[in-house]
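hey all, quick one before standup. I had two proteins in the batch that finished overnight and I want to keep them in one place so we stop losing track of which output belongs to which input. First protein below, input sequence then structure tokens straight from the run.
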Amino acid sequence: MDRKAVVLLSGGLDSTTVLAIAQRQGFSVYALSFDYGQNHKIELESAKVVANRYGAVQHVVAMVDLRSFGGSALTTDQPIPKNRSAEAIGRGIPATYVPARNTVFLSLALAWAETLAITDIFLGVNALDYSGYPDCRPEFIQAFENMANLGTKIGIEGIKQIKIHTPLILMTKKEIIEAGLALGVDYGITTTCYAPSSSGKACGECDACFLRLKGFAEAGIVDPAKYVSI
């Protein structure tokens, strides 16, 4: 029986690891990325490379204009927080939070999955080494999964229940990197930075870069990504 899964793919470290995990579990991957008006649109180029490199059956880049709402440093001219400590990153919800982003993304992933008769959706959220986003918590994922099974034709009539897979949710960034390397992930083709240079190099100072570099350092491995000042 052919096992298929929709995998949300940003082109970053976490989502690329999740794609590899889904494939290792025997799923054929249908990758879904979003052009949502993000300033760091370079991540979409990485998503295309990742999807091609690892043999996604199909890769869709959906257009969702969250920039029209604003409310985040990722979709406006608001400054990206930089050079924050681990303690500061762990407190509160940062300016890079995009209102309801994962709710929107998962809803569209659910819609595509239903058209493909797919009941498995993979998402690279993490509730340990992360920036305090409320839509990365296990409680949110469980609530969305419950809604998905209540509000879709496939959920009501299907033989299988819809499942939202979050294999990284209780892993540290170090553990995520080690798991990905064990699966042969090339992190040099991933993009994590919120404020990359015009050439695509990571800033090395935003929260996303801090957490990524911290994970590689704890794993005792040099990050293969290109940085402006490292």
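OK second protein, same deal, sequence then tokens:
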Amino acid sequence: MYKKSEKLLDRALKAIPLASQTFSKSLVHYPRGASPFFIEKGKGAKVWDVDGNEYIDFVNSLAAVTLGYCDQDVDNAVRAQMQNGVTFTLPHMLEMEVAEKLIEIIPCAEKVRFAKNGTDATSASIRIARAFTGKEHIAVCGYHGWQDWFIGSTTRNLGVPNSVKKLTHKFEFNNLESLEKIFQEQELACVIMEPMNVEYPKDNFLEKVKELVHENNALLIFDEIITGFRFSLGGAQTLFDVVPDLATFGKGMANGYPLSVVVGSNRVMKLVEDIFFSGTFGGETLSLAAASAVIDKYKKFNVIEHLYETGTYLLEQLNRLIDEGALADIFATSGHPSWSFIHIKPQQKYTTFEINTFFLQEMFKRGRLTLGTHNLSYSHTKTEIDELLAVYAEVLPMIKRHVDSQTLLENIDCEVLEPLFKVR
């Protein structure tokens, strides 16, 4: 199935580390010998690899595609802007217009600053918070990008100075005591967190975090790079009715075009005039045109409602499959309907990574592109969900049979994946 992909992988490895610009799009996450490595094209909910294999895509460029590949309305807006230019000597009106649209829909947004990647935005938010509070230490919860201030708190911290690592402190989601302990030991500039990832906030957790943060004269930052444009048009802060001081958005806001943003209150964002957060391509017009079209389409077609309803159906049917098939000792689900997860539990004889390798091998073989997440797009209909469920109904019991009979490794046709680092 992957003859051309394998050949291109060998070629790319000679020029590009891991043959990809992104860890999560590389052979770190896709087992060699059982995976495609290069996609040729996409349309709607489907993609085709370089060998011509067709897949329903549930990864959607790591949740960056929320409407679907080659969305006609977005791409038409980009083509129209392309006729007038991409990047200029002075700002284009689109910067102002898209900023105004974001201020209208995001509760905490009174001022806006654009960037390109999620890491750009989260790093800028940290710098703003440190400048505003005059303090250096930060607390983190979730995944926030590749810059030293965050990645130094993970096992993938090679090259990060120890002095930087000491400034970042991790706390647990839905565990207020873990954050209280950090505040007892450190003067924090801010708390940056994903307002939700694998599990829902419990017992007014987000409200209590906000109260604790403000009691200690720090700032609360919501990393909504994924939750934004998925949980609601205004992000998780709208869904959960908790307004942070700063927030970062990216991924789905431009349906795959490179754009991220820092938004926040006037009193905090005023410091963007004084700190140095500046980039030549922050006002690049094609991505801004895409974002403008995305916002308009979300409003016109109730995209959020579609993602929620489709994802709810998926989780309900998948949980039924797990329960009726007596598969709960190996599999579980979690997350928001628009961004949900199927979890694999380690077994007595097999690790999670061994089981996951076989899982991916069999899912790819059947034309379902997944990494154990369901990053839904507006292009996913009940038809695509049913087709995914049909494959789950075949693959999940197969895994249980191989685990029970201890024949899993003999049926893995590729290299077993190795752990990268756990972020959620």
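Flagging for whoever picks this up: The CA atoms of residues 5 and 120 lie 31 Å apart. The domain at 87-283 is CATH 3.40.640.10 (Aspartate Aminotransferase; domain 2).
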